[in-house]
Design a protein that fits this description.
With about 675 residues, the protein is mainly β. The chain folds into four domains: about 5-175, Jelly Rolls, CATH 2.60.120; about 180-275, Immunoglobulin-like (Sandwich); about 275-515, no CATH class; about 530-660, serine acetyltransferase, domain 1. α2 (about 530-545) crosses α3, α6 packs across α7 (about 625-640) and α6 packs parallel to α8 (about 645-650). The relative contact order is 0.08.
Length: about 675
């Protein structure tokens, strides 16, 4: 019925099918040529397939619209590549991508039996030859031929050896493009599309999309959740290989669509994002102690107040042990990028009486007051960098056991001959509160790109678990303690407890070891005479004209130090100590008028009081008294007998504190 081989096609745009085949299915393509004029040579007008007739140069494939006594499956056009019976009738279809579900209609068959042959290529390689059989003879209606059972990756067909005397045509060629859009990952083999994989939270997950055979289209990625809240993206969504870092545990879907020439090919992978599990977290502590020249933690010689005594060997102080695990599965992320560490917050409060320099009350704290613990939280960098073993990562195994420790210490006194550095504190009070967490981290443990505190697997009420503990005690200078010369007055260390919390404390920077003003304390001095030890040393020079002996220096210093943080008491004791130098036998030998102080059998106030005032001028102010001053203060003593009160007037005077030259101290 046909005088030519006729091909009739309609091209429809390819889209993602949202039908019973699922969201990753592709709509079929139907080509019928009704959009081309009659007698148009057909070659590469359609992006999914190219038509040719290599063995029929003079009669290439072209549209035609006369069928004779027959009908096409979709009128009006068909395509011919020959005229009548001709052994050169040939039609070749080269598909851009592999196809499946290939079928077509044969228009105008006349002969009975095998009327043509089809060579089929799969993935670019010849696979088989199949016949086109006509069991009906001459037919007015087109004959349907289904090749779907002959391959799902057909890349070429060649129709040839047409035996029909008038030729045959083909109409409504239907196929589904079947390229492979793969999602791969450097750590997990194979195509991940349609699978469920695993990744550690916060870690880099590289997903590589690739089309086979390769095309020249574009990629578009999308992810469940909200960028910035649920995940971060490196490289954007329109590249083949982005990096995703999920920020919350849970199940997510990563989808990619490849688009080219109206065709959209989807693929996706499901990802379980896993936060490691803290299965146990414990702590044990040694006792706090006062020692000398053991170099506990600080490395300096001298007296130290410390929790334990860390000397660079075995862990000491408070020792933490954490056990964290992840499921034994394959991970898209690199386990070596993820690990655990100890992170500690401290609300420090340390208060001391700085003896040598100025007698100031000095503090290490950012608390608003001593009792307002929650106003003073800071990051304790020592617990992360100095006293922690190298932070492990999950390349070492799915179960990590990690130890860290903290041996806090503070200097009571020290002397470094190489730098002529000397320090001494009359009193040290410590009330450091700690919250110690096990953190999961990604990247550098000191500068992580992601980190999160963990909670114990048994914790149901709080988001995070921590070990709370306290270093709390007070140490006072006491020369009666042999060698050490300091006494621990009380201790509440370590007070360890396990707790949970939903919101981490607000941090005010990183704690440092620099002492400064105490909260609410404005009575700061830069005058060395305000230090107890310097004050005592000056009495030796002012009254006895010599360096103090060590026993005497320590004893009189301790008489002032016992006042602790009571400034009124300190002032009174300074007066008492100075008065004791007036009463010392060594001083009395320098002036017979001072030999009989109050309380002695031969005390004569008319002699003693005038001499006492004269020495206040000469010893404290380093000058002779003016007559009016001598008379005034002598009269005060005659009326009140308040010798320490008169001393106080002299040693708190502007002239004493600011105009005289003190002996170097220390």
């Amino acid at each position: 019925m046909l005088l030519c081989i006729a091909l009739v096609f309609t091209f429809t745009e390819l889209t993602i099918a949202q039908d019973d085949n699922g969201p990753d299915a592709i709509d079929p393509v139907i080509i019928n040529f009704d959009n081309l004029p009659n007698n148009t040579v057909v070659g590469s007008q359609y992006p999914q397939v190219t038509f040719s007739s290599e063995d029929n140069f003079y009669h290439p494939s072209h549209t035609w619209n006369y069928c004779g006594y027959c009908v096409t499956s979709s009128s009006p056009n068909f395509v011919t590549s020959g005229t009548g019976y001709d052994s050169h009738h040939e039609l070749i279809l080269d598909f851009k991508w592999p196809v499946k579900n290939l079928s077509f209609y044969i228009v105008g068959p006349d002969n009975y039996g095998t009327i043509a042959q089809i060579d089929i290529w799969e993935n670019g390689t010849y696979a088989r030859t199949v016949p086109i059989n006509n069991y009906y003879g001459s037919s007015y209606y087109p004959l349907f031929d289904d090749l779907s059972s002959f391959g799902t990756k057909i890349t070429r067909i060649r129709i040839y050896n047409v035996t029909d005397v008038y030729g045959i045509g083909f109409d409504d060629i239907t196929f589904t493009p079947n390229p492979t859009l793969s999602i791969t990952n450097p750590r997990v083999s194979g195509n991940l599309s349609g699978t469920t994989q695993n990744a550690l939270i916060g870690a880099d997950v590289r997903l590589q999309a690739s089309l086979s055979p390769a095309g020249s289209g574009t990629y578009a990625w999308s992810f469940t959740g909200q960028q910035g809240t649920d995940y971060d993206l490196v490289g954007g969504t329109n590249i083949p290989s982005p990096i995703i870092r999920w920020k919350k545990p849970g199940s997510y879907k990563a989808s990619v669509t490849y688009s080219e020439s109206g065709m959209s090919i989807p693929a996706s992978v499901n990802v379980n994002v896993i936060l490691p599990t803290l299965s146990s977290f414990t702590a044990q502590s040694t006792s706090d102690q006062v020692s000398r020249d053991r170099h506990c933690t600080t490395g300096l010689p001298g007296a130290i107040y410390s929790l334990g005594c860390y000397q660079g060997g075995a862990d000491d102080g408070i020792i933490f042990t954490a056990r964290v695990q992840i499921p034994s599965v394959q991970y898209l992320s690199d386990p070596a990028q993820s690990g655990i560490k100890i992170k500690q917050f401290v609300s420090a409060f340390r208060k001391r009486v700085n003896d040598v320099r100025n007698g100031n009350f000095e503090c290490i704290t950012v608390r608003q007051s001593q009792d307002q613990v929650d106003t003073g939280w800071q990051l304790d960098s020592d617990a992360v960098t100095i006293f922690a073993h190298p932070a492990p990562n999950f390349s070492q195994g799915n179960v990590l056991t990690y130890n860290a420790f903290d041996p806090p210490a503070d200097t009571l006194d020290s002397y470094d001959p190489s730098s002529i550095y000397f320090s001494m504190n009359d009193l040290l009070f410590v009330d450091d509160r700690f919250q110690t967490y096990v953190y999961y981290y990604v990247g550098d443990p000191l500068l992580p790109m992601y980190e999160q505190p963990l909670k114990l697997a048994t914790e149901n009420n709080y988001q995070f678990s921590y070990i709370g503990w306290r270093w709390n005690g007070q140490v006072i200078f006491d020369p009666s303690v042999s060698f050490v010369k300091y006494r621990l007055q009380f201790s509440n260390t370590p007070s360890i407890f396990l707790a949970g919390i939903n919101s981490l404390p607000t941090l005010h920077g990183t704690v440092n070891s620099n002492y400064g003003a105490c909260p609410g304390d404005s009575a700061l001095s830069n005058n060395m005479i305000d230090g107890a030890r310097c004050f005592v040393k000056q009495q030796y020079w002012d009254f006895l004209s010599r360096e103090p002996d060590q026993g005497g220096l320590d004893f009189w210093t301790s008489q002032i130090a016992r006042c602790e943080f009571d400034r009124n008491c300190i002032g009174s004791q300074r007066n008492v100590v100075a008065n004791e130098f007036f009463r010392s036998a060594e001083f009395q030998q320098t002036d017979p008028a001072m030999a009989n102080p109050p309380g002695s059998p031969n005390f004569d106030p008319s002699v003693y009081n005038r001499a006492f005032v004269s020495h206040c001028y000469r010893n404290f102010l380093q000058r002779d008294p003016e007559p009016g001053g001598l008379a005034f203060w002598t009269d005060v003593l005659n009326r009140t007998g308040d010798y320490t009160g008169v001393i106080n007037a002299f040693i708190t005077s502007y002239e004493y504190r600011n105009q005289r030259q003190f002996h170097p101290c220390p």
